[in-house]
Amino acid sequence: MENSAAADNQDQTQCRNCDVSLIGRYCHSCGQKHVDGRLTTTALFAQLFEALTESDGTLWSTLRKLVRNPGKASLEYINGTRASYLNPIRFFFATFTIYIALSALTGAMADIADRAVIVDSENTLSDQAQLFVTEVRRTLASQVDLIVFLVIPFFALVVRWQYWRARRNYAETLCFISYVFGMGYLFATPVLLLQYGLQEFSTVPKNAFIFILFFIGARSFFELHWFRSIIGTIVSAIAYGFLSFASTNAITFVRLWWSSF
Q1: Using one digit for the tens of pLDDT, what is the confidence trace for 154-178?
Q2: Residue 186 shares a structural domain with residue 232
Q3: In a domain, 119, yes or no
Q4: Are 33 and 26 contacting, i.e. CB atoms less than 8 angstroms apart?
């Protein structure tokens, strides 16, 4: 009995992973969370959720603050208040992955790709031009994830230099961009499901969400007046469109070159 009591007491005062004396709920040596008793199904799935989202009560806190103002939330994160927020890169990857997966399952990607490239009198194009137009549509239908992953880092670099007076470095700007785009894809996900029900797909709602979030956030993050913020947001949107266009064509050229071998 005494040995059992001693073991229970040890479980409560020492980390079960590295045997270091506990101070609080988490081990200050290895970071493991202390859980009393045996592993349960509830605890197992809770640990899975935390691993996927880096969340221990921070998910809803992050979403709430980002909805209010992604610029202020980004400032708090880069200024050191990070335990209360999900990592911006992981947050973006998670919401973007969900959106892209649903786009593929609902057929939205293929439908939008067909309507994204419109050429007058396509039948009059040369064989090479028609082939390139077809490949661009295929790129948009199958490589959107790659396009976005290529564009976002360069877009953050453009935005960092666009607002150079704010003295935000590249990493800080990338955090802001990741939060803005992450929330944009999150807001666009239920709209995508609605569009699936109506069988009428469009990227306009997603782009509108991102534009509005960028405008609201930029005012705080880059310390701008509303007029400079709206002009800057328009310029940023044009830059993002150009980068997307360039990346799509570059990927298409590479695919054509690779298929020629």
Answers
A1: 999 999 999 999 999 999 999 999 9
A2: yes
A3: yes
A4: yes
